Amino acid sequence: MTITQEAPLQAPSRTPTHNQASLIVHGRDRTGIVAAVGSVLSKHEANIVSLDQYSDNPHGGAFFQRTVFGLDNLKAALPHIDDDLKARLGTGFELEFRLRDLSIPHRVAIFASKADHCLLDLLWRHRRGELPITVAMVISNHPDTAGEVRAFGIPFFHVPSAGPDKSAAEAQHLALLKGNVDFIVLARYMQILSGGFIAEVGVPIINIHHSFLPAFIGAGPYARAKERGVKLVGATAHYVTEDLDEGPIIEQDVVRVSHAHTVADLRRRGADVERDVLSRAVLWHSEDRVIRHENHTIVFA
Amino acid sequence: MTITQEAPLQAPSRTPTHNQASLIVHGRDRTGIVAAVGSVLSKHEANIVSLDQYSDNPHGGAFFQRTVFGLDNLKAALPHIDDDLKARLGTGFELEFRLRDLSIPHRVAIFASKADHCLLDLLWRHRRGELPITVAMVISNHPDTAGEVRAFGIPFFHVPSAGPDKSAAEAQHLALLKGNVDFIVLARYMQILSGGFIAEVGVPIINIHHSFLPAFIGAGPYARAKERGVKLVGATAHYVTEDLDEGPIIEQDVVRVSHAHTVADLRRRGADVERDVLSRAVLWHSEDRVIRHENHTIVFA
Amino acid sequence: MTITQEAPLQAPSRTPTHNQASLIVHGRDRTGIVAAVGSVLSKHEANIVSLDQYSDNPHGGAFFQRTVFGLDNLKAALPHIDDDLKARLGTGFELEFRLRDLSIPHRVAIFASKADHCLLDLLWRHRRGELPITVAMVISNHPDTAGEVRAFGIPFFHVPSAGPDKSAAEAQHLALLKGNVDFIVLARYMQILSGGFIAEVGVPIINIHHSFLPAFIGAGPYARAKERGVKLVGATAHYVTEDLDEGPIIEQDVVRVSHAHTVADLRRRGADVERDVLSRAVLWHSEDRVIRHENHTIVFA
Amino acid sequence: MTITQEAPLQAPSRTPTHNQASLIVHGRDRTGIVAAVGSVLSKHEANIVSLDQYSDNPHGGAFFQRTVFGLDNLKAALPHIDDDLKARLGTGFELEFRLRDLSIPHRVAIFASKADHCLLDLLWRHRRGELPITVAMVISNHPDTAGEVRAFGIPFFHVPSAGPDKSAAEAQHLALLKGNVDFIVLARYMQILSGGFIAEVGVPIINIHHSFLPAFIGAGPYARAKERGVKLVGATAHYVTEDLDEGPIIEQDVVRVSHAHTVADLRRRGADVERDVLSRAVLWHSEDRVIRHENHTIVFA
């Protein structure tokens, strides 16, 4: 048996985000962006920890950059740097950028239904210090997981579904969420969100769903995958848009299955993939590693 | 660098198929099948090398069994055992079975177009002794790979496509194939086979195609996968049926990609998966490891 | 977002083990074993649900067989069948076999230390109905996880380690375990078990440990893996023998990492693999899918 | 079957390297590097296509940066930019850098023995346009693959091994290689290279070897892996150093195996992983994506 004396598992996150800030720059590619961003950061003696950059076409395509820098010896406060970036990037380059102090965790609401595998996995990881977020609340259309959620010290709100008219439930959701969360995670939440809700809530929404090769859209996907004899079961995490399950993909993974697996087995193996894929998508989003562009994402993972 | 003295890579196949036979039994599940099959084989002192069995429902579901046994000390010739099995399984149990001397390789025709990755990989594996088949011929609608195929000592036939009417080309195909092959492999063959051809040729046909999560059916799948930002690129090997790309799946696999991959990269990574998946499907089929049932397969790999 | 109406995730296990029994047969291979076993089961009208068999050499090698059959219409009680098998297999064939009613779950003790990822994952899967076991107790050399374990309704015993002399602690372990458990799981238990304890407790012990390509044995494996720049982090579940970490492997898996991952990241990704690999090993062992032979395993998964 | 009309597979490489240059910067991390590099490139109106950067510790750790930029509208020749970088980075920052015109392919020698799987895979990929290299020669201690190599139009040199004294063979190798190649690939070359040779030849050497969890060092690794019942077989590509198989890892991967696989099967599945892993290592090295540092690598893949 293992007796290696490692540091405890509740170790610091990949990017020790205390005293660090991230800068996302995004826009039409052109010569000189890198030097311009670099000169602003250099002027304030920002010590760059990591820098990732991607251009889908250097001749006028889309440009994406993520810079993480330390705040320790910084010669200016973040708002001051923000002003400098605005002056330097906003006018000449017409770039969008966002600057964020990574030591301030994103506030997150998790939506769930009856299935608890994705929900509990996120709460566990959060308690272990794996996710740099604050779980502000869990909202569910079923009361089943209330006890478990509250055992983590996290508020649980039961907002029942009431048939096809979602307006009352969504009004309750908005009352709970507005001003309180920076993004939402649908952890196997089995209700459709209306376009109106998505627009009104105004924060990114991450969803997880099963996925197959080939896809089985609609009811009973696992049963149909079994009929077709698929050899892989997968999951896809994506941003929610009005187009059902068609939003930008953040992360995907699969697991092997065989003819000997029942439909219930496929669903269970699928659940294992779902929780892993969703947790990676939440981690990357909360570390500002994901940039949306058209209907896809740039992930600097 | 490595200096381990291993046996050469051209080592014998997983099932040393010389002096072995396989027996596939398939039908409605009921009590006593195992004992009945076992008693026939035992009577002739067949030494069972491996036995795999699966039932999708023990109460009258479908039953599948693959037995491999040695021919060395067998007390009867295979046709004699075949008769015994017919007497024992055919009447009381209404089972189908097929008995095959594994030392007689399947004869295979490979269909290809311009892309050579799947074709060459099969020919090279065959030469290494990895595939217990005889490659009877390669048929292509393009002349491009003729030289390479013939360098392997394998006949190459160029049968050009001539627009939407495939009847002339398919007549040529049938003339080449009839009586000469036990199964057909479409190694990125970019032409549709007609239902009439599939019925007339009368042997199993294995195809390989790309696959994605979610699926992108129709033209330009890699370009559309890129637009959606997929994180996995896959391939599916399946038996060809009249329903385009909807036949029983034999094998699938995927490889990770990222936003930094171009459409050409996706296609190339996809090609790597395609050749691996297709070679496994061909191996398993040629070792009688795959049983078709309704629209799926049982794979005793 | 997803709205597919699947059956709940707390679905029945892969082998609906109620009213089923498993028969493991194991010994020197020879002609006629399959027929002999089949005839005993057939005599009692056992409906065979699945049958897996493997021989590492049909000419006198080792033979392994796992049969699952239904108890519904059985014409005899299990002890009666056991007697018949003893008469038929024990004398002529010198085979070992074990017959087990799968509806009686194995009783399991889980040993843990401070890290909770494997422990909680097992308890949660058990509550979901994924593992056909009874968790009889959790034993830990640290009190940290007591509250969480007891929240699952499972007894928690704190047996502190007391330096190099383990005899007092192991005596306490034995007092708790003897007669109460069918196997033990070391869920990241960071203490060495003595050879005396392993012999005395007399039940299989499953351990999980990290693993790398190449291996980094001894202290600080993750730090050393980082220094060498490994691209994969893995985990191995194995049976515990007196040879530290050298027992028969049950299951392994890996996850990709990159130079951008810190030692803490490697450890965390490793933890994800550990819990998945351990849960599969526990599932397969509890379903009698694993047969130990010399220093390896046959896994009919 | 598939009828999608994709562009041909012989598509351009991931980074269309014509008219592009790569700049690798490497040294002790400090504030201002990014701005300094950016300002030199910006001054000459270099259009940056991609930029990856990593620091293992922003407070005086090691800094790594890879920039790819277009040469189309460049306002200076590369040597001029090289001078500017030398002036800007060499003195104040004590950084090392290398600038390279990516349209000039690396010249590569491939060393092989009897096994052809890695060798042929590299030659295929090269012919398909997947690898931006020139294969200058193949050197083998066995004549077996001469015909196949020459069919690709590539020189083949047979330099037999002559027992433990490698000095004569290595002198031949050096005579062939000196001045003619930019790096060497050992494609399952089964001879040890002496430290003197490695130093004298003066170019990077990439090797591929099998790898397992746990590692089986020394003779007969596959046989010993089989005895231990491993469930994964892997391969590791690394730079060759004087420490046998202990050089910096470039890439690794694994494939699943089971108890039913023979030693020959493990070796064959291993061969599939080896060729894939080696080809990725060669691709990344030839695109200047790999930076060696101490005993590991930074791979901007």
From TrEMBL, chains A, B, C, D:
Q: Which InterPro entries match?
A: ACT-like_dom_sf, ACT_dom, Formyl-FH4-Hydrolase_C, Formyl_transf_N, Formyl_transf_N_sf, PurU, PurU_ACT
As its record notes, the protein acts as a catalyst of: (6R)-10-formyltetrahydrofolate + H2O = (6S)-5,6,7,8-tetrahydrofolate + formate + H(+)
List the keywords (alphabetical).
Answer: Hydrolase, One-carbon metabolism, Purine biosynthesis
Q: What SUPFAM superfamilies does the record point to?
A: ACT-like, Formyltransferase
Origin superkingdom:
Bacteria
Does ATP-binding show up as a keyword for this record? no
* Listed pathway(s): Purine metabolism; IMP biosynthesis via de novo pathway; formate from 10-formyl-5,6,7,8-tetrahydrofolate: step 1/1
Q: What is its EC number?
A: 3.5.1.10
Sample GO molecular function, one term: formyltetrahydrofolate deformylase activity
Q: What class of enzyme is it?
A: hydrolase
Pfam name, any one: Formyl_trans_N
Specify the ACT domain's residue ranges.
Answer: 22-100
The record's listing under CDD domains reads: ACT_F4HF-DF, FMT_core_Formyl-FH4-Hydrolase_C
Family of the protein in this entry: Belongs to the PurU family.
What is this protein identified as?
Formyltetrahydrofolate deformylase
> Organism, per UniProt?
Paractinoplanes rhizophilus
UniProt lineage:
Bacteria, Bacillati, Actinomycetota, Actinomycetes, Micromonosporales
Q: Which gene encodes it?
A: purU
